[in-house]
Amino acid sequence: MKKLIIVSTKASTGKGGISTALSGYLSGLENQNIDFEFVESHWQESNIIVSWLKAFWLIVKLSIKYRKNGVFWFHLGPWLSMFRKFTLAIVPRLVGADTVAHIHSPAFQNYIEKNSFLTKLTLLPYKQFVVLTPWWEILLKQHKITKPIIISPNPNNETFCQIAADYLNFPRQINDENTNINILTMARVAKGKNIDVVIKAMLNLPEHCILTIAGDGPLLSKYKVLVETLGLYKRVTFTGWIDGEEKENLLKEADLFCLPSTYDSFGMVFIEAMAFDLPVVAYGWGPINDVVTPDVGECCQAPTVDDVTKSILKVLTKLEQYSGQGPQKVSLLYTPKKVVQNIINLLD
Q: What is the pLDDT at residue 316?
């Protein structure tokens, strides 16, 4: 078996999808007793040039040490991350090591469609690619990328997978119509997440529907003003960014998860909600249709107030049909043990 070298931002330190997903991969590798080395491609607290030089020289040493017996697994974010990984991947490719690009960023679609030549240029050092859903594989092939492609979804962490297993044994109790319906939205409060659409949809939902918005970001203040302006301050609560037990408690207390995002390459938060046996309402563009399937929720046709309202109301009329479906899907597809096998196959 070849040596695995992971090149990425540090796992579990950021608030983004790469960091969260990578922590699941690492636990899966450790549980399978797969030896690996980790190269941090950059440090937020360090000068960008200094951190690049440290990563570059470490990769040079590892490339010389392992050569054809090494698999360098690069995790690609938006353009700066892609360019940084391009410069780091050249050396292992030149010495004959296997180089794999794992594409995480939703911005990649825009890059390949608006500037196909430059995007393909940054992909030259890689022998094969890992993508998150079948939709991404189709996109690459449409743009004449012929190198081998592996579909490997992001994994939930071990804790959430255990919670999914618990819900399989003891399904969530369906909420009584006479009590509040708790709708949860959890994401970075930023452009593309369309949290304002969910807020406005509350005007069209019954009074007993309440909304909790968990997350932080540049639009948080604006959305708080929107809630006040619409007179929804009694039905909409902002928690700010949360993690750990706070996050788990919110997911346990919710009845439905809603995020009509147009900026997600996979949607880690969707499979997290599924683990807690929550039906999901999302916007069904591209890869999201691969994740939020009809058995676990509803994908609206457009990220509009009317469509989101209709999808929420539709889900609320058949909550019992979704019971146990999300945890089952997580247990079948999104555990570290299941997903990490795709990477182990690269080492054989």
A: 95
pLDDT digits (tens, 9 = 90+) for 113-166: 999 999 999 999 999 999 999 999 999 999 999 999 999 999 999 999 999 999
Please report, for the chain, the start and end positions of each structural domain, with discontinuous segments joined by +: 3-155+335-347, 172-323
Task: Please state the CATH superfamily assignment of the domain spanning residues 172-323 in this structure.
Answer: Glycogen Phosphorylase B; (3.40.50.2000)
Strand partners, 209: 181
Q: Is the pTM of this model over 0.90?
A: yes
Asked if CATH classification 3.40.50.2000 holds for the domain at 3-155+335-347, the reply, yes or no, is: yes
